[in-house]
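Assemble and predict.
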Amino acid sequence: MAKKKTIEKMSYEEAFMELQSAVEKLEGGELPLEESLALFERGQALSTRCSDLLEEAQLRLRQLTQDESGELIETDLELEDL
Amino acid sequence: MLRRAMETLTNLFSSRPVWAVGDLTQYIRQVLESDYRLQDMWVTGEVSNVSRPSSGHLYFTLSDENAALRCVMWRPRVARQTHIPRDGELLEVLGHISVYEAGGQYQLYAESLRPAGEGARFAEFLELKARLEAEGLFEPERKQPLPEWPNTIGVVTSPTSAALRDVVNVLRRRFPLVTLLLSPTQVQGDDAPAGVVNALESLNQDGRSDVLLLIRGGGSMDDLWTFNHEDVVRAVAQSTVPVVTGIGHETDVILADFAADLRAPTPSAAAEIATPNREILREDLAFKRSDLNQIFREHLQSLRQSLEMWSIRLKFASPRAHVASKQQRLDEFMSRAENAVEYRMTLSLTAITGLEKTLQAVGPSTVFARGYAVVTLAENGQVVRSITQVSPGDPLQIQVQDGTFNAETQDQPGE
C-alpha cells in the first residue's frame, strides 16, 4: 500500500480509502496502544486532508490540442464569462 | 314564402356587427396562427415561380397535382441558405402558415428548406442503427463502468459552446477536485464528424482521462447529425476510456448515445453522472470521522478496563500481598489465642463461682445453723480445738448461730 505516501500529496480517493481502512483496522481491535494511537492520528490527518480537498479544491481547466506534426500539446483552457 | 320574406327582413335590420375586410383578414390570420400544427411544419412539393427580387426575399410556389401554396422566405434566412431552389425541383420546406393581408393570401413563411429526399436520411439513420446493432456495438456487455472518483475528465465539444460552460459549472459546484481536459472540436458541419473522432482519439492517446464526456447542447436534428455519423459512433464504441454522452435534449435519439457507456439527457447531466456529489462526500467524510473517534474511544476504554483488571490481579500477586496475607494469618492466630484465653478465663470464673458456692455450703454460718458452736478463749480469742488448751476456771466465749455468750471451764478436762 502507499502507506508511506505523504498525506498532503494524496488524492481524495487515496486519502479516503486509507481513512476507511484505518477505521476498519481500529474496529478490529487487538492493536497495541501506540499503534492504535498512531492509526487514530493518521486517520484524523487523512480526514482533514479529505475535507480540505473538498472545500478548497479549484476545478483545473486544461486543453489538449495538436500541433502541425500531430503531437498533442496541453495548455491552460481560458473560458470567457466564467 | 312567408318565411323567406321574414328572413330577408331580419337580415336587413339585424343589429349584428359588420366586419371590415381588414378586421376579417386579421381575424383569419389569428385563427391560422393559433393552430400550433400550422406554426412549425415541414411541407413538400414541386417548386415553381421562383422569384428573388432586389429586396433579397425569396418567393416561390410549392404545388402538387391537387393544390398550390405560396411561399416566402425573408432575406436574413435566404442569406443562410446554402441551397437556393430552382423551378421544377422537389423541395421540403420548414415554416409556418400565416396571411399576407394586403394580398388576402395565406402563405408559408419558410425558415429552412432542403431537397426532398433529405427526409430519406432518417431511413438511412435507421439502417445504420440496425447495422451497428447487429455488429454488437450497442451491446450492454460492451459498456464500461464509470470510475467512482475521476481525477481527470476529458471533454469533447466546441470550446465556445454553452454545453462546455454547463459542464464547468456543474463540476465547480459538485466535484471541483478534478481536472477538466478539453479536446476541442467543431460539433456541427461537414468537418465535425472527423473532428469529433480525432478529439476522442486524442484523449484516448493522452491516457490521463478517467472518463470522457461527449457533449453538445440542444439543436435541430440537423445540428445533432454529427453524432449519428458512423465514424463518430464507432469511435465512441471503441474508446478504451468510458464515454458518457450528453447530446441535445432528453428526447433526442442519437446513435452515439447507443454506443456510449452511459447516456445522459443533457451536457449538465453528463457531468453529474460522471462525478460524485460533494454534498454526499461531505456526509460520508463526517460519518467516517465520527466512526474513527468513536472506535478509538472504545478502544481506549477497553484498554483502560483491561488495565484495571490487571492491576487488580497484580495487587494480589505482589510480595506486599504476601506480607499482608501473613499478617492476616497472624492476626487470625492472635485472635484465636485471645479467644482461647478468654474462654479459659470464662471457664475459671465459672469454677470459682462454683467453689464459692461450695464454700458457702460448708461455711460456718451453715454449720452454726445445724447447732455447732465455736468456743474461744476469752483472754486471747484462740479457737479451742483441744482439751489441752483449757484449765478449770478458764473464761470462754461461745459463738452460736445468732450470737455469743460467756462460759467457764468447770472440771479437769479429760477424755
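The CA atoms of residues 26 and 77 of chain A lie 44 Å apart.
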